[in-house]
Amino acid sequence: xxxxxxxxxxxxxxxxxIRLKQLGYENITLVDARAGTYTRPGILNASIFEELTQLxxxxxxxxxxxxxxxVERSLYKIAESLNIKIMKANFTGFxxxxxxxxxxxxxxxxxxxxxxxxxxxxxxxxxxxxxxxxPDAFSVQPIADPSHKKHLMAYVKVEEKTDSDPPSTPxxxxxxxxVQKLEELRAMGWKGFVEPGFYAxxxxxxxxxxxxxxxxxLDASQHEKWLKTVVAFHTGKDNFDYTLLPASRKYxxxxxxxxxxxxxxxxxxxxxxxxxxxxVIPVGDAQxxxxxxxxxxxxxxxxxxKCLLDAMVLEKDQEFHIDFEKYQKELxxxxxxxxxxxxxxxxxxxxxxxxxxxxxxxxxxxxxxxxMSKQKELQPSFAELIQAYAQSLYDAGNNALESILTSSxxxxxxxxxxxxxxxxxxxxxxxxxxxxxxxxxxxxTMASLKLNEIAHLYEKLADVFIQRGAYGSSLKCxxxxxxxxxxxxxDRAESVLIKxxxxxxxxxxxxxxxxxDMACQTLSEIKNIGMDPEEKKKFTYKLELNKAxxxxxxxxxxxxxxxxxxYEDECNxxxxxxxxxxxxxxxxxxxxxxxxxxxxxxxxxxxxxxxDKSDLAADKSKxx
Length: 624
Ligand SMILES: Cc1cc2nc3c(=O)[nH]c(=O)nc-3n(C[C@H](O)[C@H](O)[C@H](O)COP(=O)(O)OP(=O)(O)OC[C@H]3O[C@@H](n4cnc5c(N)ncnc54)[C@H](O)[C@@H]3O)c2cc1C
Description:
alpha+beta; FAD/NAD(P)-binding domain; six-stranded mixed sheet; 13% strand; elongated; binds flavin-adenine dinucleotide; 2-polyprenyl-6-methoxyphenol hydroxylase-like FAD-dependent oxidoreductase
């Protein structure tokens, strides 16, 4: 390869051209119709200028405002001083191994090249053209999902005699005002209950640049009203004193009030190669877009350019080659870092359930003191807010749960065989239970299904503990499962099974009083549960058996039992139920008989029929 064409003379195209030239590459041509006329607004982080100065080894100057245009103007001057060939023309297509470019007079020029760099920012002029010719040669994908994509930028003069600039976060003010402004924003098309983002960047003198999030479909005639309402929301003042700056006299087209989209995408492939075309490599925003609010565009772009330069080897006579493997490897790590920074930023912007809980109580307070007509007006919003709260609780609970459960979806155990991350797990369940309480419709179903799933996970774990003879841990699991069931499954058939198993585990753990309570509670609940009648009878039998067994133990152990007659009577009734049940099994009768033999309770013996008594006698004599 010998000839390099760079389409796009924004910060990254200019930087790459400068660095290539500094490294000894001579055959470089930059093309951009905008080259040399830089008026773009956008305030950069001041550190960018120092970093670029260090990278290039030449001063990258700024006025006192740190504008994007300052970087571009300064880099352009450096490029000119290095005699880099710059054409005021735009790339319009490929002509075999050449770029077709069109200048301001609509004259077409053909620019032969071996390497074509796409530095056209989010337009991705070269990447898109390659994709048109070779569908899907480059895959362009969204990186993360910003909840809002459209933004408004406005240069303003801040009139108010304030010492500080308008705050970027909501100021403390009356709840009525806050709710009123939020409702006004929602009436203009704002979705949800997280207020639109607002950033106020102070410029020279009393000028400020406002950036605000704006609804996608808001008519342009409403943009000023939107800005005013957002500023009011954030400053707490209905008439915060500012005026929009008029368009620049020097550069008529210089926008001072404009909307733009932020929806970062990335190109997955590092390059495109084809025998009849130049090798195409995207850089800068064309490769991966930033979000202006986290100021990584230039920094990350400059680092990725360094990765490319590190992989380029200049040989003699201006011939060069690229070690693509090396480039891909280094690039992947840099892209990953960039994408991770964006994802983190968007995640942090998603408000937590605490935000909704707080807002819910604010709306409640406002509604409580509002007039009847105002209350009626706020009701639909309030209902929507409750659902948003439930959704945020569900998301928080579900995300936490996913981070806790094992890869096979089970409750994790630590090295001591105890539940790991137990507190986190309990918090996640608490969030889901709250979500279930507040949710409506599909979300309600989702929350109940999720809780049902967790109850069964506890049940499964309880079985594991039983197999290990760890009855205490098993019971703890049943208690958790029951706690969840109490909230969501109380009237469902599956709750009976879990409670029955819980009763049995209490038996194994010799906790007879709890066993009795659990059996009684489930027996009273089962009456009202809609389930298969046969199943119901079977479980009633099993629970009566457990009740009888529990009572026999209690009557034996607790000699001092108050109301003993009552419990003996209860025990009698339970045994009678068991004996008369069609589900009676010999082994159960034997179990009862044996127990009575070991712990003879006179009043009980007469309820066993003769055969049972003889069984008991035989059993006793055998043991003797
Ligand atoms: C408000 C705002 C604030 C920001 N703050 C920061 C910050 O603090 N720190 C930071 O690192 N980044 C910041 N950024 C991001 C940064 O500005 C971008 O990452 C950077 O401009 C990307 O440079 P680029 O050269 O890749 O693309 P661009 O700057 O988009 O330049 C692309 C160039 O390609 C040209 N072009 C387009 N189509 C063609 C064509 N067909 N043929 C030829 N040329 C073409 C355009 O005219 C343009 O000059 C901010 C951005 C904004 C909007």
